[in-house]
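Hello again,

I reread your note about wanting to compare the complex against the isolated chains. To keep things tidy I'm splitting this into two emails, and this first one only covers the full assembly. Below are the input lines as submitted, including protein chains and any nucleic acid or small-molecule components. They are followed by the predicted structure of everything together. The single-chain runs will come separately.
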Amino acid sequence: MAHEDHDVIYDLLAARGVSRRDFLKYCGSLAAMLGLSQAFVPEIARAINQGAKLQPAVWLNGGACTGCTESMAQADSPDVATVVLEILSIDFMETLSMAQGQDALDAAEAVFEKEGEYILIYEGSVMKGFDGNSLRIGGKTGLEELDHAAPGAAAIVAVGSCAVDGGFVMAAPNPADATGVQMYLDEKGISTPVVNLPTCPVNPEWVVAIVVDVLLLGSLESGAILDKLDRFGRPKYIFGQTIHDNCPRRGHFENGNFVSEFGSEEEALGYCLYKVGCKGPQTYTNCPIVRWNRRASWCVEAGAPCIGCGSLDWVDVGAPFLNRHRDLPLPNVGNTQPGVIAGVVAGVAAAGLVAHGLGMKATGRMDGGAPYEEMKEHDRKRMKKGGGK
Amino acid sequence: MSHPAHYREAHPFIFVMTHWINLIAMVALAFSGFYIHYPFFAGFMGVARGMHFFFMYVLLINLAVRIIAAFFVKSATRLGSREVDTDIKNWLPQKLNRHQLIPWIKYYIFLKKDHPIGAKYGVLQKIAYIATVPLTLAAAYTGFAIYAPVMDWAFFTAGTDAVGGPMNMRIIHYYLMWAFILFTAIHAYLANVEGFSPSRLIFAWKEEEGLQFDAEGKIVGGTEH
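Full-complex prediction:
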């Protein structure tokens, strides 16, 4: 890479107080996340540098709390991520667009006309209930908006759990009949590739990784991105291992050092949060490696058990978040822990055996059982019928 | 009372061994499983997991040995008899058990006074014992499906997705252990409620005299005691 290539990007970075060294370190961590060897660092650096060509993008908000927007907006301080994310020319975003009203909608429409060129970023669930009227924008329902935007997109990035499978919006009883983008498009027969980035909210680092991988290293054009997705459409390099696999508290887990209650000495010692409901063992994300808030920290490091927001159906299978098991909804009883159900069944069984034992004692069968029948009941009845043969 | 003879032919030594191994493995698995589910004292997780994985293999290998041995080892196929046949006959339908399901149920719920005629394993008993095989395999499958080294294999992810994720799989695995505990409680109760001779035979391989039966289920000798 010739020195003059550096100028644009390093001017940009220098203006943000980021040194060349910081930039290359960041590219190194991106290479690690993307599962590439460090030999790819110069290529990533070059790709970011040459990524001056803006990629048109539209950010649609579905049914959600706008937390993912908030999370992305945190990538605001001088940092390489912002430089990468600026490659996305987000021409329409309901919450952050400068334009308002018809102007904003026109901007979106202008992007939709560039069929096959734009990236659709979808935040929030797709709410199918009430004929799609849970969400209306510009006189159209949210469903119509998605139907309009999805077919022409080069790819859809579903950011946050809501966009992936409905997230907390689809938690029981799911009044809005919320679902994920991929699931909705499958129903509609729209085959635009979808990259799912769950967690609540989405981590900007993962969006950066996708931008670099898909747009700059060209894995969308080559189709390679599809091979990098797991069976839920999530990039394997982000969602391939559990939190438990890479947890900094894993040593305490193996040693059997657990936090039993918050505010205890064990908690102060940074012991494992398994007993207070950590869902790390079944949650596939690389949070322990990439961390959050510009790689400052993440839930478990900050002392909170993982609540499994990177899993599918994460609210219903994770709640109550401070218990080892999910609750099971029993008709007429309500939410019950599996252990309680097992205990009741076992108690009834034990009582049954005791009662039966008392019966055996009362009928005098405990010493060898009752006398054996001379003939099977079936044979006896048949003999009676057949006239004593 | 009418106590059948308990001869060693009923449980050849290899089955005394497999029964012991099953018992030890299941106790170890249930204990370590409860600990992994909720660590009720400190400092044991690494050992508990090691125990769980070790005894899982012990149980599965033991199951394989028990099933293979059924085709090669001869054992008595009826109560109070030294006459032996290939052990697998005990696990297939037997003439002595025909038409006896209802009488057994009636006997157990005190609607029938006399003891139903039966093969070495009565109808309900045989169903319960055979059910432990799919139960063990189901416990193994659900266990492997939440066992990090293999949980990503398509064979296991297919099941995990079908039940709605690893949390549900974990709960099913947990309930299967309870199914084993219930089976064991009922098994231990029924095996011993009419006397401890069955336990003396299966654990200590100790014989006891009693009634002898012929192939029609008729008492042909032996002594009351």
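For quick reference: Helices of chain B lie at 13-37, 45-70, 101-108, 123-144, 154-163, 166-192, 197-204.

B.
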